[in-house]
């Protein structure tokens, strides 16, 4: 492995530029970028992580304050975080195990529902629900003690690549040379644009309104999802302390109206929709966070590694793919990118460097199937449940019931939701 070298460039004598050489640079400070940078450093690769928001450790969520950024974590995410020695360090009193999922169609008929059960599937749980900042904080803590990892609060201004590696010029004047650059800079990835990697993109013309609620009935470790007539989707994910985290996908206009509601407005609304089913399941709901809204879209980069002209680049996480949150899988998919990349680099043949094109092509090949399948399924489900025609309405509701009656199909669905990944 190469050591971190420092030298002063002579290109600009008036403003000397600090130039460094490392094995890998990870660009992006979200969960995917942080997990990837930590994992690469744990492999013994000298790694620098660069993002504008890396200046401070994300504070750990405390006491009654619950973040409204909440995720469903799949088994594949649990395995990756355990591999990175993060999972056991998480505060598990703030994590909720999900043992049941109940999904309801939009006709309000008794048979239009799908029930997935961990017990029936012979697995201890279907997922875990937890706050984003809980995981980010723990990743930050672990990164502080990883001496092969350095973090820079900076922005990449220029990226020059050739067959030997990548040279990054930073806004604060530094220059970094790396064998390999990983772009984890989110859905609007400046690196993806800079390299001219095209992407297929589609707006769903929907926003997701998220908020946490205290419910008067126990949620019974169940994640609920209601498809509503007109295409809205409401998910209520269980959290500790009799709380649920809501993700309501709706039109941007309705999302703006929802953000203006007070507790009484919300109570009236939630008791009147989905045939009052939300209240029947969860009782009275008391707002426990400030609601926030996020625009929704689908995006898939046409390649997950740099083109011929810039071969030493890898895209991961939302920089490579974005999906509707109805299946709660976007982050899990991004963390599977990380797991696959770490597996490939960790098991590489002794004669290959970390940026060997054979390894990068291996990564791209291995990620294509999982990504395409998940994007396709979530997109088709979203569209099937938004269609207003009667045939589509019959089909989607009948489909829920059909899957519900098939042990085989339920088992396959659960396997998909758990996500496959193994570390050797
Ligand atoms: C409402 C909602 C609910 C969701 N629920 C779930 C769920 O339950 N389960 C799940 O698996 N997924 C879920 N997702 C998807 C999930 O939020 C994303 O897939 C995930 O956050 C992507 O992580 P990331 O690290 O790739 O990108 P981001 O979290 O977007 O991070 C990108 C990072 O890039 C960095 N950056 C930006 N610009 C630059 C730059 N110029 N230079 C350097 N760095 C830069 C920033 O540091 C930023 O933090 C949900 C999404 C939404 C909208």
| Ligand inventory | flavin-adenine dinucleotide
Q: Termini separation (Å)? A: 22 Å
Return the CATH topology of the largest domain: FAD/NAD(P)-binding domain
Supply the CATH architecture of the largest domain: 3-Layer(bba) Sandwich
- The percent of residues in helical segments reads 25-40%
Total count of strands: 20
What is the overall shape? Answer: globular
CATH class bucket of the largest domain: Alpha Beta
Give a nutshell description of this structure.
The chain is of the alpha+beta class. It folds into 2 domains: 5-60 and 135-200 and 297-386, FAD/NAD(P)-binding domain; 70-130 and 204-296 and 389-418, D-Amino Acid Oxidase, Chain A, domain 2, CATH 3.30.9. The chain has helices at residues 31-42, 75-83, 118-121, 132-144, 190-194, 252-259, 263-272, 277-282, 330-346, 357-386, 390-405, 407-418; strands spanning 5-9, 17-27, 47-51, 70-73, 96-98, 100-104, 113-117, 127-131, 149-153, 156-161, 166-170, 175-183, 199-215, 222-227, 233-239, 243-250, 285-287, 292-301, 313-315, 321-322.
């Amino acid at each position: 492995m190469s050591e971190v070298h420092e030298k002063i460039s002579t290109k600009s004598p008036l403003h000397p530029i600090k130039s460094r050489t490392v094995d890998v640079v990870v660009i992006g400070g979200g969960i995917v970028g942080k997990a990837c940078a930590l994992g690469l450093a744990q492999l013994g690769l000298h790694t620098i992580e660069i993002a504008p928001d890396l200046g401070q450790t994300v504070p750990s969520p405390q006491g009654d304050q619950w973040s409204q950024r909440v995720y469903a974590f799949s088994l594949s995410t649990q395995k990756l975080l355990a591999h990175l020695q993060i999972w056991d360090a998480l505060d598990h009193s703030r994590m909720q195990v999900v043992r049941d999922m109940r999904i309801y169609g939009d006709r309000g008929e008794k048979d239009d529902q799908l029930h997935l059960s961990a017990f029936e599937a012979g697995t201890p749980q279907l997922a875990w629900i937890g706050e984003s900042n809980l995981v980010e904080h723990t990743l930050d803590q672990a990164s502080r003690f990883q001496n092969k990892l350095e973090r820079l609060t900076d922005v990449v201004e220029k990226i020059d690549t050739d067959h030997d590696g990548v040279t990054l010029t930073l806004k604060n004047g530094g220059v970094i040379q790396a064998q390999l650059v990983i772009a984890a800079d989110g859905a609007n990835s400046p690196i993806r644009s800079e390299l001219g990697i095209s992407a297929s993109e589609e707006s769903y013309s929907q926003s997701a309104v998220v908020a946490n609620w205290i419910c008067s009935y126990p949620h019974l470790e169940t994640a609920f999802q209601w498809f509503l007539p007109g295409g809205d989707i409401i998910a209520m994910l269980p959290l500790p302390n009799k709380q649920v985290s809501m993700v309501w996908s709706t039109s941007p206009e309705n999302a703006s109206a929802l953000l203006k509601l007070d507790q009484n407005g919300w109570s009236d609304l939630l008791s009147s929709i989905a045939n009052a089913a939300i209240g029947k399941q969860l009782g009275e709901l008391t707002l426990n966070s400030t609601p926030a809204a996020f625009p929704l879209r689908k995006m898939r980069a046409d390649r997950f590694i740099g083109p011929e002209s810039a071969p030493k680049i890898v895209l991961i996480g939302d920089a490579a793919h974005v999906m509707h949150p109805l299946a709660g899988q976007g982050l899990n998919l991004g963390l599977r990118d990380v797991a696959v990349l770490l597996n490939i680099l960790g098991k590489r043949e002794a004669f290959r460097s970390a940026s060997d094109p054979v390894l990068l092509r291996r990564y791209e090949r291995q990620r294509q199937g999982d990504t395409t399948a998940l994007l396709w399924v979530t997109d088709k489900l979203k569209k099937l449940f938004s269609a207003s025609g009667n045939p589509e309405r019959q089909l989607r509701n009948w489909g829920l019931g059909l899957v519900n009656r098939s042990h085989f199909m339920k088992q396959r669905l659960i396997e998909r939701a758990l996500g496959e990944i193994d570390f050797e």
